[in-house]
Amino acid sequence: DELVVANQLLNLKEEAFQAIIVVVDATNLERNLLLCTQLIDLGLPIILVLNMADLVQKRRISLNTEVLQQELGSIPIIEMNARRGEGVNKLKKKLDEVVNAPLGQFYDPRSVAAEAVSEIKYQLGCQNYYQAYLLLQYGDSLTFLSLDEKKLLNDCKAQFKFNSEALQVEETTQRYQRIDQIVEAAISAPESGSSTFTEKLDRYVTHKVSGYLIFFGLLLLIFQAIFAWAAAPMDFIDLMFGKLGNLISGSLPEGPLTDLLAEGVVPGIGGIVIFIPQIAILFAFITILEESGYMARVVFMMDKLMRKVGLNGRSVVPLISGLACAIPAIMATRGIDDWKDRLITIFVTPFMSCSARLPVYVILIGLVVPEVTYLGVFNLAGLVLMGLYLLGFFMAISSAWVMKKLIRAKSQGFLIMELPAYRWPRWGNVGITVLEKSKAFVFEAGKIILAVSIVLWVLASYGPGDAIQQAEEQITQQAQQNETLLETLEADVESVRLQESYAGQFGKWIEPVIRPLGYDWKIGIALITSFAAREVFVGTIATLYSIGDAESESTIKSRLQNEINPETGGPRFTPAVAFSLLVFYAFAMQCMSTLAIVKQETRSWRWPLLQFTYMTITAYGAAFLVYQLMS
Known about the structure:
65% of the residues lie in helices and 4% in strands. With 631 residues, it is mainly alpha-helical.
């Protein structure tokens, strides 16, 4: 975060800023004013926005903005309640005016490194001494500096013995001493022995016993809602796509294009759109927990657990973020200073069940978990879904514990964070977030699924040489000789066409490897295609089981339920097969994008390949045990 700001504000080649808006929490100026004082020393034109003015009034805090303005170099100050838009018009009017540079100075770097900052100010043409000081601090990480300029900075640091860390500690200490004096002069709060609502609630929410009970209770509510509330819209979407496929096959002339649309594109896209209600519910709950301030408490509680398994305190944020998507979660590990701790966090984060796994979980749970409700509230499907998320979490921390022993990371990082006050969520923000997340999920996954569906339909509709034609003729001859086979002739022809196609041949080739897990060649094809993205599994399965079934309005779920295992004569998706698949996807690294980001963050193919191998072996072994035990 510091580097992003430094690259923007220290760029010597950029034009001058007209104004910089610094938004701070008015109830916590002691912590929030640090950056503001640094910008003042840079001589930048600043408008200070004191946000959360409503909480200032609620807590009966007396804030003297005139004193604050005077102490901060006469910079413009605007009080604002951004949640209700109060103060926004004042800010807009101020932006129409000329914003002057602040007066005065907080920290003079010449008092600790006079020779170094003077030399850099002269050599690089800095506007002031503090800018030269920050160039010395951040030099190697600033993208706008040339190699010669970075060499100049490093040579200067070596010549004048510029100790970055020691000087940062000294600077921060002096700034906070001055900030404390300013806050004491500008703010007065009533002395009261009574606790605030947030403090009272935190006694239970962050308690070592009740805190975890509340957290697991909320998780249970979320997973119950994902099944209970989404059932009706999902059934409707599933039925509509079934009718759409039937409409296309009945309205358009017969031919490859019609078959492609009805049997490939529509089922493939339908296999992802059907999960919009559940994705929306998941992100709605996550957004509400974040907006209310509760998610920060979850991070705080999980930090205690992380330490017991040897993880860095800062590992909590990436792991929690992994519930949405592993890619930004892995990028969030940049905040972990120790390389070994960061590597362990990167390695185990993909075990957290991301939103892309949700479609796979839902379709398989819906196939084999009976619709049973306990105590009139808890449905069994929701409990199973929660169990899968917890399974991924426990695998992540178990793997981290093992890696910690093997790598022997000695450092112990600390998580320092502010627990915000509890507030009602802004429902407009919740709605926008749900809309954006759902749209991103559908369009990002939809592009992949559309491409995979088209390729898969081609591979499943055509085969090498005249293999398909010969198989059709053989089935037809057998039916003519045996009248009982005439009743199922059409279905048998479609089945043999699929088996003799390119997709079928490839599926048969990999089938011996996955047969011990209870999978057939069709499931094998879905496993391979889902390496593009986990949710592609559902689109692939929907496409494969729609080949030759375009005129049927049956739903995806009913097609899978009606699939027969030719060896047993029973259903293909038995509880043993379904739970084997569920465990496989809970542990497997079925995402090329995640592998790419791991390579980017570790700057080597060694770690993503090792991670892929470890997760695949773990997934295969766990799926094998589940299938063998349940069979």
